[in-house]
Structures are given as C-alpha cells and as structure tokens.
Amino acid sequence: MYKRGPLFCNYVVEDNEELQKKTVEMIAKDVTAQWLAGDDLKQDQFKFIYNTMRVMYMSALKELLLAEDPKLLEEILPNLVVFRAIKEGTVILQKKKAD
C-alpha cells in the first residue's frame, strides 16, 4: 500500500452498488435543489417559508409540526403564511412612503 510513500497509497475499493445508488440519488437531489434555489426570488421565497416554519417550530405547535398533523398543514400554516405576507407587505409599503 505504501510502496511510494505515505502520500502515494493505493486502496482497493470493491464494487459497492449500494453506495453507487445512494451517490446517484444524492447527485440527482442536489441538481434539483440547485434548480429550485437558483435565483434570488426563489431563495427569498424559501427563506420566507423557512422563517414561517421556524415560528411554528419554536412555539407550542412544534409537536404537531413534527407529527405532520393535517390540520396544522391545511389550516394553520396557510393562515400564518398569509399573515406574515401581509405583515411584510405593510413593512415594504411603509418604507416606500418613507422614501
């Protein structure tokens, strides 16, 4: 293994089909993630949703969120997103008025 020194070592790597499959899956998911988070608008949208989910995660709704409760995902989350969007919109409008 160390015929040419410690920095030049050769390893015998067996065919690992499971590792190959997982690597291909990981690369496919990475390509999808790069496509989804490609431009600034998409990144802002992801940050907005992440911060909304973080609000729920840091509250008493944490257990329901982790359990993927249908009521939480179908009723509470959309209402919270709308509330936060309106709140962000009013902040933007106030900044425009101030300028």
Detailed description of the structure:
It is a single chain. This protein is mostly helical. It has a domain at 39-98. It contains 4 helices and no strands. Helix 2 crosses helix 4. The longest helix is centred in the C-terminal third of the chain and has 29 residues, at 70-98. It is elongated, with a radius of gyration of 23 Å. The protein starts with 16 loop residues before the first helix and ends with a helix. The mean pLDDT is 84.
Gyration radius, rounded: 23 Å
Fraction of residues in helix: over 70%
Terminal residue distance: 69 Å
Range of strand content: under 5%
Task: Report the principal-axis shape.
Answer: elongated
Based on helices, strands and strand pairing, what is the structural class? mainly alpha
Tally of helical segments: 4
* Average pLDDT figure: 84
Q: In sequence order, what are the helices and strands, one letter per element?
A: HHHH
Largest sheet: none
Query: In total, how many beta strands?
Result: 0
Low-confidence stretches: none
